């Protein structure tokens, strides 16, 4: 599965964007990012992001649950356990990060881990707005390119 | 422009994903990522990625151009200048990275900078396959969640 996704992404990355000459051609070495294509690098970065989003959402939930139960958030074991885990373990690989939390012995860690697992799936499938991000990143690249070019031309004058 | 994108992303991030009770609700603190929403964090990460992709594509182009001209790539000033800049300056902010390259005094740096600028726009607009990345990240989260859950259940038995 992973190999076939990788192969398709490489084919796509090697595409000739505009017909004809050099100006619009974009040839990306297929292993440019530690052996990964740009699409796979983006997939991994978003996977990390979704895991971090889900963890922060569960911390917010546990804080609200504590307050609803008449406690301070810091008095909730789940809140404290997850907050500490997030602070002490930066997410490099979202799945390794999840696995380590799920393997811990205390019940509170395992309960929050299961909720983070559930939320990151919901977040990826239903909440994160891929289309808006596509629009935003293209609009950002255009406006930043225009700004950089205008500063460049100003310096030449 | 930036402020209004930020505001819309926050509204989206606060959406209730499934109606009703706790299971499907995803409430993401709007400033979860150094004051940014997840969509803005994703936009910035993709902006960095596109800048890196464009730089690597220009290095490949300059290498090919050198070979086509009967030289070794290392004999091309543009190839050497950009390769060294990429190696010595990890991209944290894609625009600051581009600006520093465009401000350099030597003609080779400025020429490759202009080409990187052009290519990252083409790459964002025409080459990068957002839809495939969306499919891949959702499929990856699903299969990794299934795997983590199955390992968790095995440990309980």
Q: How does this structure look, described?
A:
- Chains A, B: GO terms for molecular function: protein folding chaperone.
- Two copies of one chain form a homodimer.
- Chain A has helices at 2-13, 38-68, 77-88, 94-102, 107-127, 130-156.
- The first copy, chain A, is built from six helices and no strands.
- Helix content of chain A is 71%, strand content 0%.
Q: SSE layout and pairings?
A:
2 copies of one chain form a homodimer.
Chain A: H1 2-13, H2 38-68, H3 77-88, H4 94-102, H5 107-127, H6 130-156
Helix pairs in contact in A: 2-3, 2-5, 3-5
Quickly list its features:
carbon dioxide fixation (chains A, B), 0% strand, 157 residues, protein folding chaperone (chains A, B), photosynthesis (chains A, B), chaperone (chains A, B), mainly alpha, Non-ribosomal Peptide Synthetase Peptidyl Carrier Protein, Chain A, Chaperonin_RbcX_sf (chains A, B), homodimer
Q: What pattern of helices and strands is seen along the backbone of chain A?
A: HHHHHH
Share of helix among residues of chain A? over 70%
Distance between the termini of chain A: 54 Å
Biggest interface pair, residues each? A-B, 77 and 77 residues
State the assembly state of the protein chains. homodimer
Largest sheet of chain A: none
Radius of gyration of chain A: 22 Å
CATH class of chain A: Mainly Alpha
Pfam family, one (chains A, B): RbcX
Protein name (chains A, B): Chaperonin-like RbcX
GO molecular function, one term (chains A, B): protein folding chaperone
Organism (chains A, B): Ostreococcus tauri (Marine green alga)
């Amino acid at each position: 599965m992973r190999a076939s996704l990788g192969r398709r992404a490489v084919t796509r990355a090697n595409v000739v964007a505009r017909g004809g000459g050099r100006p619009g051609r974009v040839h990306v070495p297929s292993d440019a990012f530690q052996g990964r294509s740009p699409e796979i690098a983006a997939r991994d970065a978003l996977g990390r992001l979704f895991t971090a989003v889900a963890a922060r959402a569960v911390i917010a939930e546990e804080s609200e649950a504590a307050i609803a139960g008449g406690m301070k958030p810091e008095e909730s074991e789940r809140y404290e356990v997850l907050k500490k885990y997030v602070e002490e373990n930066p997410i490099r690989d979202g799945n390794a990060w999840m696995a380590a939390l799920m393997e811990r012995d205390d019940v509170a860690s395992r309960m929050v881990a299961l909720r983070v697992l559930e939320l990151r799936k919901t977040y990826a499938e239903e909440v994160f707005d891929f289309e808006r991000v596509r629009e935003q990143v293209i609009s950002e690249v255009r406006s930043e390119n225009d700004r950089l070019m205008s500063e460049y031309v100003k310096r030449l004058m």
